[in-house]
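Summary for the funding panel

The consortium committed to producing paired sequence-structure records for every protein in the target list. Below we show the first two records in order, beginning with the earlier of the two.
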Amino acid sequence: MSHASSSRTGLLRGVVVLAIAALGAACQHEDVRSFQGYAQGETIRLAAAYSGNLSKLSAKRGAKVTEGTTLFSLADEGEVAAYDAAKKRLVELTRRRGPAKDTAEIESLKAQVAQTQLKLAQKSANAPADAVIVETLYAQGDWVPAGAPVVTILPVDKITVRFAVPLAVAAHLQNGRKVTLICEHCGGTPVRATVTHVSPFAQPESQTEGLEALRYMVEARPNPAQATLLIPGQPVTVVL
């Protein structure tokens, strides 16, 4: 083989080696990696301002509810019936609009309806957001003290996933990055999620083990339509 051919062969080998090295370095930075994390959530306990017997309990453990759904009520049948009757009478008088005495009664009924409506609202609780029922603390018919929690819910928008990544990955992650979550209890369905926070500081426990051991905490929020597949505390694999 000529000297020129040997030189060209050596040059090509050098280029290939450099290309492979560059590709390896790029892969080391971030792409197609998976990390172990866990799901977490912030629960809310719902209570009523008044005491009374639990007349209605529509919340069931594990059920998914939409924002605005009435979960329970302590209002008795008499209160509800009186409220409905006052509303009906108010509608009738408003349509008729007769003598002055009707006007006085209308104003009185308006005040009564508004006051009763507020009291009934304070004797019940609606879901403040789409959520999962975690537990019910009383059974229908039980006496519930004023201010005592009746239902615990996990709002969908409070479910997140936390996972730790090395510096080389954290440096390339940004809020808005799409990731995929895989978990044992997700029915084999990959869960889509979005990175919402990348800590600017390394985890304290990793700071004494050298630069390569540094780990940075990342949070991702699952797609609301799939968030209820995640159970707080369960392990999750995060695929970048």
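The next record, for a separate protein in the list, is shown here:
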Amino acid sequence: MLKGTIAKILEKPFTSYLLLIIMLTIMLAPIIFTAFTSFKPRAETFRWPPTYFPEEPTLQAYHEVLFRSPMVRHLFNSLVVSFGTTAIVLIGGLFSAYGLSQYAFKGSKIVLLIFIATRIVPPISLLVPFYIIMSFLHLLNTYFCLMIVNTFLWYPFAIWMLKSFFDQFPRTLIDSAIVDGCTRTGAFLRIVVPVSAVGIAAVAIITFLWTWNEFLFGMIFTNTREVQPITVGAHYFVGDELVQWDTIAATAIFTALPGLLFFSIAQRAIVRGLTAGAVKE
């Protein structure tokens, strides 16, 4: 009887919407509270019990973040590192995954397993080896250092994801393009890449966001504000005796915008890539 009642409730359309609203509320609650906190005066952020909505909304925190702190520089640093890492991972990952997928050789599966095996080791255990290598190469406190480290972290995932898309790609389309006069590289760039835009955009989004949110390596391998990413630079507002919660909240909202912008651009690239690859000129 009880199982039948539960089954009927779960079959109702409103149940799915109710569960969706509950989960969405749980996920968005910290973000919404952070957004409200960014508009509070500093004194109000220390009030107990805390206020959920700002009683006297102000843009003072955003003004301090943009014009009276080095956050703009940290934001630029994160953009350079994130876009650079995404470009390296995509360019290298596309050709590597395509070769492993469409032109398999003896031992290609072992190579793929080796790529995945590099992610079995916890990244934190690689701090000392990476630090020694970067110090020997005189790359500490540089953009290139952070790009190399983040490429090591996300490159295996990119190959694994892209290969799964290329495995499902119709081989007949590639053969037809070669018969029509395309080289193997031309068929890859003109046929495979546009049609696989969904997978490529997904890898680009994931790589960009993971690199954007990376903190540990950025903190260890950089020591000046000219190179430190925004995740490390946000500690500018954490003092020995006072934590400026309003400016930290404003920084969090401010730094979320580039990720949302990049996601929207990648979404448009998916549509353009699909239409470009589906129509033969």
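Regarding this second record: The mean pLDDT is 81. The chain has one domain: 73-278.
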